[in-house]
Specification:
- This protein is an alpha+beta fold.
- 25% of the residues lie in helices and 24% in strands.
- It is built from ten helices and 17 strands.
- Strand 7 and strand 8 form a beta hairpin.
- Helix 1 runs antiparallel to helix 10, helix 5 packs across helix 9 and helix 5 packs across helix 10.
- The two termini are 39 Å apart.
- The structure holds FE2/S2 (inorganic) cluster and fe (iii) ion (FE).
- The site of fe (iii) ion has 6 residues, from helix 6.
């Protein structure tokens, strides 16, 4: 759903190293207390130098979402992860172990796997057919006798760290702490058995905006009454304050369903028996979690909706949306995800159109940061996290510099 108008709107680099005092002030204003904080300056969304910083500090040095474990159900199942900097594959091996590698051949670097799906018994490079086992070992070099003497044991695929959290598979090319440690303060969702959910639908979107705008947009419903007539009719678009989930690397909160509404779908009928473990107290709720940087997890009484947001360039990103249900629901012959799928596909288009419009406004000259609205505390959580994660060294190095 890219709009032609947004194409080519990328501004040149304005980021100074060291940062100018104006830039320091703008970033510090984002990271300040919510009540007095200012929204990010436009260059945070339009400057290629900012994306370079994010590529290095987040996507090459942090835990990045790859997909749901149900996509890796058997040996040879493979997920491709493509961000602006990290290009990885996650593969289930013959020994049932899930491994991750850079998606690049050890011969001349060719991309090995184009899309997620099922591989054969080997990962074979499309260029000269070097072949790797599902565990990443180089097993075949065609016409090897004409190759200089090489030690194949040193030419396996380059491994990445991989971890599974609540059924979601993450990869990491850097050295931060473990994923469990990172999300240790996340609410316990084990009662929902998210790792056992079945993927029943998936949609892919290309959006002409900076990836952070999709994350920001998810984190508030201030726009819901204006942009989402259906969502506004089915649930209450209030701020999350007072009942908010917030931690070091995530934010979120619940919204309640309107009386008589069983779930977020059109028609709003629930797929029984609902998610495993869903508690009576939560039956009127839909939970929204943003796991930084790029996983958005929505839990309705009868399905989970997941968005994976991947930056492609400074003003383009891809979003994959998945609908997951419990095994008991998936086994029903009449399990029908279409009401929830249609509802969210429409809502996605409404959101992404706004994100693209926001991108164009942020790229315009004269754009200045504004105040956050009282319902945007989760947006602020994300913005502040981003500034701290991406700019902390630049901010320290720039202390005391001139404009
Ligand atoms: Fe992969 Fe040559 S680049 S086999
Ligand atoms: Fe929205």
């Amino acid at each position: 759903m890219e709009s032609a108008a947004a194409a080519g709107d990328t501004a040149g680099t304005v980021l100074n190293t060291p940062l100018s005092t104006t830039q320091v002030a703008a970033l510090e204003a984002v990271a300040g207390p919510f009540e007095s904080a200012r929204t990010p300056p436009g260059w945070l969304f339009t400057d290629p130098a900012v994306l370079d910083l994010e590529a290095a500090s987040l996507f090459l040095n942090d835990w990045v979402i790859a997909g749901h474990v149900s996509q890796l159900g058997s040996a040879g199942a493979c997920l491709c992860v493509d961000t602006v900097s990290l290009h990885a594959i996650v593969v289930r091996g013959d020994d049932d172990v899930i491994r991750a590698f850079h998606n690049s051949c050890r011969h001349r670097g060719t991309r090995l796997v184009e899309t997620s799906g099922k591989l054969g018994p080997l990962i074979r490079c499309p260029y000269h057919a070097w072949a790797y086992s599902l565990a990443g070992a180089l097993t075949a070099i065609p016409k090897r006798e004409a190759t200089a003497k090489v030690d194949v044991a040193t030419l396996g695929l380059v491994p990445l760290r991989v971890a599974v959290w609540n059924g979601f598979v993450f990869v990491c090319a850097g050295e931060p702490g473990s994923l469990d440690e990172r999300l240790a303060d996340f609410p316990d969702l084990s009662y929902l058995a998210l790792d056992r959910l079945c993927l029943v639908a998936e949609r892919h979107y290309r959006v002409a905006c900076n990836w952070k705008l999709v994350i920001e947009n998810y984190n508030e419903c201030y726009h819901c009454a204006i942009a989402h007539p259906a969502l506004h009719r089915l649930s209450r678009d209030v701020g999350f304050d007072g009942y908010r989930h917030r931690g070091r690397h995530f934010t979120g909160g619940p919204m309640s369903l309107e009386p008589g509404v069983a779930t977020l779908a059109e028609p709003a009928t629930r797929i029984e028996p609902g998610l495993t473990g869903w508690r009576d107290a939560d039956r009127r709720m839909v939970f929204y979690f943003s796991v930084f940087p790029n996983l958005l997890l929505t839990i309705a009484p009868d399905y989970a909706l997941v968005h994976y947001v991947f930056p492609a360039s400074v003003d383009r990103c891809t979003v994959t949306t998945q609908w997951l249900v419990s095994p008991a629901q998936a086994a029903r012959a009449d399990c029908d995800i279409d009401p929830a799928l249609g509802f969210w596909d429409r809502t996605n288009h409404e959101d992404f159109a706004l994100c693209e419009t926001a991108q164009r406004g942020l790229a315009a000259s004269g754009q200045l940061p504004g105040p956050y609205h009282g319902w945007e505390n989760c947006v602020h959580d994300f913005d502040r996290w981003l500034v701290q994660r991406v700019f902390s060294s630049l901010l320290s190095a720039s202390a005391g510099t001139s404009p």
